[in-house]
Amino acid sequence: MTATLDQPLRVLTGEELAVLALLADGLPIDAVARRLNLCKRTVQRRIRRICDRLDVHAPIQAVVWAARHKLI
Question: Which chain regions cross the lipid bilayer (predicted)?
């Protein structure tokens, strides 16, 4: 599923948006995991799922997408 301008909120969950927001703040994966009380592996899986859903290749591209859609 590729994200579209019409469906940005349905593409990502609240948990995924929280991960993106922390990545946008410049936090490394370890710090994101601590902040969200998750294990590092869970955060990595969420990042992969976010990238797959948005059809991007890197987390920074996902952060840019979310910022452009004013989700973070």
Answer: none
pLDDT truncated to tens, each residue of the chain (72 aa)?
455 555 555 688 999 999 999 999 999 999 999 999 999 999 999 999 999 999 999 999 999 999 998 888
CA distance 39 to 34: 8
* Nearest-angstrom CA–CA distance, 54 and 8: 9
Q: Do 66 and 12 meet the contact criterion of CB atoms below 8 Å apart?
A: yes
Six-digit token pair at 11? 């593409």
The C-alpha atoms of residue 20 and residue 28 are separated, in whole angstroms, by 11
CA-based torsion, 25, 30, 34, 40: positive or negative: positive
Which CA distances in Å does 47 have to 27, 38?
A: 13, 13
